[in-house]
Amino acid sequence: MKWIIVLALVGAALADSEEFVTVTFDDGVNVNNILTYRETLYNRRNTNGCPAGATFYVNHEYTNYQLVNELYNNGFEIALHSISHQTPQTYWQEATYDDLVKELADQRVQMSHFANIPFEALSGVRIPFLQLGGNTSFQIIKDYGLTYDCSWPTISYTNPGLWPYTLDYASIQDCPVRPCPTASIPGVWVQPMVSWSDLNAFPCAFVDACIFIPDRDDADAWYRFIVANFERHYLNNRAPFGFYVHEWYISANPAVKQAFVRFLDLINNLNDVFMVRFYHHEPSV
């Protein structure tokens, strides 16, 4: 418990600092969902003049690598989401070290080649279905020179939210999707998925996984719902606020899309809020 207390105290000291918003999308990039990304994300800027960031966790199946390259060249982060994204979910729970090397380390090589993205720029991981496999995937992050994982929800540390941390010390973060890592794996970062609260206070890591939600045709109610979850971070210890979603949910629900765009317009006009990528790669000169 002591490390969470320390993090909470540090977070309290940061309550007057900048608020980071991390917008992420999962799965393949194709000619259909690129239209949503172009319409909602392109040409956005934070109030400091820097481009607004977002992160795409991309798997191989149904992916158009030319469009992945377009996303990267528009300033967005591309991260790893496995080659196969296969079912059942238990595959990821039981995957061996060698299985995950083929899914993640090999995907980094594949993505760099086919999307023409610098190898070093591909540094993040999200495991399909958020199904952790204990220490294994985190050990691969370390062994293969990656930087962070964003597959681990927290439902216990949401108010105040949990800040990113390293596994230099074994984590005591709660484990909603078992098994979670138990070892100290120095240098590997955890970007915890701080859960939202739906209208009945049930937790949901992905926006599209929330159960008790506003009417999907009510853009104003959805905007208030998003802002209420954002303010739990912004008016508290300012742990990064994650808007984790699958594109289909945005495009299939025009009112939700309208609320999403309205929310992005709001934060892009706040002087102390910044849409960021998890990882920023400076190209070598």
Automatic annotation (TrEMBL):
List the signal peptide residues.
Answer: 1-15
Q: Which domain of life is it from?
A: Eukaryota
The reply to whether tRNA-binding figures as a keyword in the UniProt entry is no
Fetch the Pfam families from UniProt.
Polysacc_deac_1
* GO terms under biological process: carbohydrate metabolic process
One GO MF term attached to the UniProt entry: hydrolase activity, acting on carbon-nitrogen (but not peptide) bonds
Q: Which CDD domains match?
A: CE4_CDA_like_2
Please provide the record's keywords in A-Z order.
Signal
Domain called NodB homology: residue spans? 17-147
Q: PANTHER family attached here? A: CHITIN DEACETYLASE-LIKE 9, ISOFORM A, PTHR45985
* Protein's recorded name: Chitin deacetylase 1
